[in-house]
Design goal:
The complex is a heterodimer. By secondary structure, chain A is an all-alpha fold. Chain A contains 23 helices and 2 strands. Classes of the chains: A mainly alpha, B mainly alpha. At the A-B interface, helix 5, helix 6 and helix 7 of A face helix 17, helix 18 and helix 20 of B.
Chain lengths: ~525, ~475
């Protein structure tokens, strides 16, 4: 893959930008941050283009290895799954910087530095091939996010920042002990080796639970999701975007990279736990979302519901389910990010998140209403948008494993449609009861530039998901093979029909068509 | 008989003794005019002692027929002690000069305390241990009450003296019991005697000795003196107490536990586990309500000692290495944090100690605020800062010694500690500014602070060096 350490470079650019931002004035910091994130986006595209998707390609590409830390190494490398999440990260970052352009006007240098540092860590999480390096990147994200929520957040920001920090920290520390035990047992810190290592099934349960504690909080799964609405509501817009867009995906990535391949026996044994929590999450958080009067809180709860679809997809243990889970993660990253941006757009104008303070915005903000509608529909999972592909695959996957879980989780789509459309109706349709809301100007060019790329990506992912599925297919197939020996028997008993001769099928279709 | 080889082994102590005595004479005759020179020369003496460490290693570990050890372990500990003592001297003048309490005795007392600490970590015999300990303590009692006009300082000195004497008594009683039942005061002799099973008398002696030493490292339940002394003592002295004597006491405890009481490992392991977990929990919980930054640092030091003792509780070479690495990183963070605290001065240059006065520091003194945040996050054990690595090492050692449950409890309890460190960061970064501090800090303070902060941030690159040094130190005990 050539001599250029592309992954290190992708982390070095924002790091250098972060340091430069600390010593710059407000306007310089904005431009430095934008430039750094755009360079990283370009590098991300180079990475995607250079990623070998051919069937006989290596699973791990762009590998780097430098044992400079004594007990662990600077070991990087990506597979298709990590690639897609990195692309999502570098795609959202310039948008976050753009979203903060005017909204943040105090301590801009530090703000931009925190965001760029966050980007370094997010890329680090997805590229780390060393267990301890992963943990360091994973945990270090707490520092910039704590500062972002605490310094630039809303009125109740201090409570939210504490809750975010301590919840996530408490979740993660046990994972560290489990990691130490694994390294002690297996004698290596390399993730690819550990992914193929067979731990004693009895110990796997404990290890799985330790990792679960961390990823479930990060994901977040019911009942440890309560930090999320607080953090989202109090964080500045860009903070919410990055939180929903990428940070939540770290939990899902953790499940797919650690829990499933490293502890296949325990995953199968404890699948009921994940399924149970996810079913509760889908129904409960959707109902909670339905009665919210705060826009950001509503979207935060919808995130929890969507992430529950991710977990059931992952613990369906089959290709469709896991692919679906990945697609939901990518789609949700775009859509929830975009929805938070949409909230940010009107929040910047009226400085309130109360839904009832708005109404009839489609009259004075038509462009905004169109884009908001697109993202609402994508969040609902309308065919042709990103989330449809993911949700459909995930639910199809879980149906093979457990039809009851599939049944309950599918109600999430109906409830999702209910709360999202209800939200949209209250904001964009109806009478313009509030004069100040009716006087708000439509999207500015900057705001349009923030939302349009996401809209394009959402449609691309909905219409031609193959671009996103292709790089991951081989890795997910390998994961499925790893899980195959322990997979619990499904209850749907799907049997393939005998393929009929081609001519007969065409004939029937013609007859069918003729009947209309 | 004193042979020249043994003198070579105590070369660092000789350098300090001679240097200290000469400087005492200088201070006595030149008075307070020579303060600057005495300060600098004291630091030079410490540097000289540091250089002498190399020659103390040049021959076999035992000197004076086993009374004294000069091995990799003592060199590791002494290097830390000298560095911490040097920093405490360098940080002091600015503080004392604003109070008009600057005296040339301060660096000299620190030098004498340092000799005692060197003897503590080099002791091969209970008597050397006791002499070293008392030498350190006597200098420390005077240092605690160094500001004679200040009531809190005098109170701190008195409290420290009374409680310290009690602890010394307990320790001495333990030593006498152990001597009575084993017939030896040498670590080797004791180890041989208890190797054939622990009698009740020996067990009592062991408990008393460990209690006395737990007092010196301020581990729960013998911690009660720490907050008062830390709060009352002048801030540079507090910085000194929190760093160098901690290393010495932990080093001493490790050496006694492994070399003298090693065969009774199972007996003291339970005690260590209890003391470690109790210190972590109590240090964490009690710190939450504090409003004085020095008191908070006292509880923080109790908390940190708990983590360091987890390494010792393992009783393995990896565990001891982890404990020593922990102390190295701890000293770095403590000196850095106190360099920040020493800069907490109001507009008139008078020291302030309330945490509330830090509010909004990030807007008036960006650099200081960032350094403060780095040290606090690091103490809380959040990666990628170096403080995480310290905790990582002790927990890894615990997992390696099949004490996974201990590691799990310890790390879960560390989240409590994270809370109060976060509180300081919250005050600095999230709260609205109150009265601003003095516009800028002294050059030395800033220099030490920057050096510590940089190492804390890029510390992982030093891992190979630290690993090798601490492993060698631990290996010399087994």
């Amino acid at each position: 893959m050539g001599g250029l350490p592309l992954l290190s470079l992708m982390m070095a650019v924002p790091m250098a930008g972060a340091i430069a931002c600390l010593f710059s004035n407000a306007s310089a910091a904005r431009w430095i941050a934008l430039a750094a994130t755009l360079i990283d986006l370009a590098l991300g595209i180079v990475l995607w283009a250079g990623f070998d998707q051919s069937p006989d390609a290596l699973q791990w590409q762009f590998q780097e290895y430098a044992p400079i830390f004594g007990r662990f190494a600077w070991a990087l490398g990506i597979d298709g799954i990590a690639l897609m999440l990195i692309v999502l990260t570098v795609f959202l970052m310039p948008i976050c910087i753009g979203a903060s352009w005017n909204a943040i006007n105090k301590r801009v240098g530090e703000y931009m530095a925190a965001f760029l540092f966050m980007e370094v860590l997010m890329i680090g999480v997805f590229t780390a091939q060393d267990l301890y390096l992963f943990y360091i990147m994973f945990e270090a994200g707490l520092i910039p996010m704590y500062l972002i929520i605490g310094i630039w957040g809303g009125a109740d920001r201090i409570y939210a920042s504490y809750k975010f920090f301590l919840y996530t920290l408490l979740g993660s520390v046990l994972m560290l002990i489990a990691m130490m035990w694994m390294v002690h047992e297996a004698g290596t810190t390399q993730i690819p080796v550990l992914m193929a290592y067979d731990f004693d099934p009895k110990v796997q349960t404990l290890l799985f639970l330790a990792f679960f504690a961390s990823f479930a909080v990060k994901m977040p799964m019911w009942p440890v999701h309560t930090w999320l609405p607080d953090a989202h509501v109090q964080a500045p817009t860009a903070g919410s975007v990055i939180l929903a867009g990428v940070l939540l995906k770290m939990g899902g990535y953790g499940f797919i990279r650690f829990s499933l391949p490293m502890f296949p026996d325990a995953s199968a044994q404890l699948a009921w736990l994940i399924w149970g929590l996810s079913m509760v999450a889908v129904v409960y958080t959707s109902l909670v979302a339905l009665v919210q009067s705060d826009m950001k809180k509503l979207i935060a709860y919808s995130s929890v519901a969507h992430m529950a679809i991710v977990t059931v997809g992952l613990f369906a243990f089959n290709q469709a389910g896991i692919e679906g889970a990945m697609m939901v993660m990518l789609g949700h990253g775009l859509v929830s990010g975009a929805l938070f941006l949409c909230v940010g757009v009107i929040y910047d104008r009226l400085h309130t998140r109360e839904i009832s303070r708005y109404g009839g915005l489609s009259i004075n903000m038509p462009r905004y209403a169109v884009l908001f509608l697109l993202f609402t529909m994508a969040s609902v999972g309308l065919p042709g948008t990103s989330n449809f592909v993911g949700e459909f695959l995930a639910l199809m996957g879980i149906y093979q494993a457990s039809s009851w879980v599939a049944l309950v989780c599918t109600t999430g789509i109906i409830l999702g449609a209910a709360y999202m459309l209800y939200l949209y109706r209250r904001i964009c349709y109806g009478e313009q009861v509030n004069a100040d809301a009716a006087a708000m100007p439509d999207l500015s060019v900057r705001e349009l530039w923030l939302l349009a790329p996401i809209a394009a990506a959402v449609l691309w992912m909905g219409v031609y998901p193959e671009s996103f599925l292709a790089p991951m297919r081989a890795d997910i197939r390998a994961l499925e093979a790893r899980l195959a020996p322990t997979v619990p028997a499904g209850d749907s008993h799907i049997t393939m029909g005998a393929p009929r001769p081609a001519g007969e099928a065409t004939h029937e279709m013609e007859a069918h068509g003729g009947a209309h | 008989m004193i042979d020249s080889v043994s003198l070579l082994a105590v070369m660092p102590e000789l350098v300090l003794t001679v240097g200290g005595l000469i400087l005492l004479m200088v201070a006595a005759y030149a008075g307070d005019r020579a303060i600057r020179a005495v300060n600098l020369l004291s630091v030079a003496t410490l540097a000289g002692a540091g250089a002498a460490l190399a020659c103390s290693l040049a021959h076999g570990p035992d000197a004076f027929d086993g009374l004294y050890r000069a091995d990799a372990f003592s060199v590791f500990a002494k290097a830390l002690i000298y560095a911490a003592a040097g920093a405490s001297i360098l940080l002091a003048p600015r503080f004392f000069s604003t109070d008009g309490a600057e005296r040339a005795e301060y660096p000299i007392l620190i030098l004498f305390a340092t000799i005692g600490m060197g003897m503590m970590v080099s002791a091969g015999d209970m008597l050397t241990l006791y002499v070293g300990l008392e030498m350190n303590s006597l200098a420390a009692y005077v240092l605690a009450s160094f500001m004679r006009q200040d009531e809190r300082s005098s109170e701190a000195g008195l409290k420290y003296f009374v409680l310290g004497s009690l602890a010394s008594g307990i320790l001495l009683y333990g030593i006498s019991l152990l001597y009575g039942f084993t017939g030896s005061t040498g670590f080797d002799g004791i180890a041989i005697a208890i190797g054939d099973g622990l009698s009740n008398g020996e067990l009592f002696g062991l408990v008393f000795i460990l209690s006395g030493l737990a007092f010196k490292v301020s581990a729960v339940p013998f911690h009660m003196w720490t907050p008062d002394v830390y709060e009352g003592a002048p801030t540079p002295v507090t910085a000194f107490f929190a760093s160098a004597p901690k290393v010495a006491a932990i080093g001493l405890l490790v050496r006694v536990a492994i070399e003298a009481l090693g065969p009774a490992g199972l007996a003291w392991q339970q005690i260590m586990i209890f003391v470690a977990l109790a210190s972590i929990l109590f240090g964490g919980v009690a710190a939450i309500g504090q409003t004085n930054i020095k008191r908070l640092m006292a509880y923080s030091s109790i908390n940190n000692v708990g983590f360091a003792l987890i390494g010792l509780a393992c009783g393995t070479p990896a565990g001891v290495a982890a404990t020593m690495s922990y102390m190295a990183i701890y000293v770095l963070m403590t000196i850095g944090a106190f360099a920040c605290i020493l800069q907490m001065r109001d507009a008139d240059g008078k020291p302030v100690e309330t945490i509330a006065s830090l509010a909004g520091l990030s807007q008036s003194r960006k650099g200081l605020a960032a350094a403060f945040a780095i040290f606090m996050f690091s103490m809380a054990g959040i990666p990628p800062l170096f403080g995480f690595w310290a905790k990582f090492l002790v927990f890894e050692a615990a997992v390696g010694a099949n004490l996974t449950a201990l590691a799990a409890f310890g790390i879960a309890a560390s989240v409590i500690g994270a809370f109060y460190y976060l509180k300081i960061i919250k005050t600095i970064y999230f709260d609205e500014p109150t009265a601003a501090y003095e516009a800028r800090g002294g050059m030395i303070e800033n220099g030490i602070l920057t050096a510590c902060a940089v190492v804390i941030v890029i510390g992982y690159l030093l891992n190979p060096v630290l690993d090798r040094a601490s492993a060698a130190a631990a290996a010399s005990l087994f």
